[in-house]
Please model this.
Amino acid sequence: MRILAIDPSLRCTGFAILEKTGGALRAITYGTIKNHAKLLPSGCLVAIHERVVELIADHLPECAVVESVIYVQSFRTAITLGSARGAALLAAAARGLPIYEYAPRRVKQSVVGRGGADKSQVAFMVRALLGLTETPGADAADALAIGLTHFQNAATASLGATTLQQI
Model:
């Protein structure tokens, strides 16, 4: 099974392509879709959408997994995150990929063992669990962690995952 995992953000969207063959789990590629601070938000959304389309075309994942919407104190931040999330989800939905989402605390619990873990702990554990030679950046590590969470839940019939098609 091959999946696309996304940690959406307007300026630094984390992504990962992970694959599980037999019992072996590996990261095929991961990184960050970085948008320059001077790029208009609309341009950022186009860049996110286009890169996710490329990732899907290049790696042919069977599904997409994303971090669910988080509570933020600012409505402006919520709208911005929602827009970035929408740009990425549109690319996956247009290709007919099933989309699953996981709460941030669930991802941290799954990878680190503690729902309140910080980003450096997530990055460290992702490196250890996937046998990476270097610690990924925070946004890429979050995407890898979301992917790992999906693989853990796939073994238990996706308990705790919400399929966006059901919403």
Observations:
- The beta strands are 2-7, 12-21, 24-34, 63-67, 99-102, 162-163.
- The chain has a mean pLDDT of 89.
- Residues 2-166 form a domain with the Nucleotidyltransferase; domain 5 fold (CATH 3.30.420.10).
- Residues 13 and 160 are 23 Å apart (CA to CA).
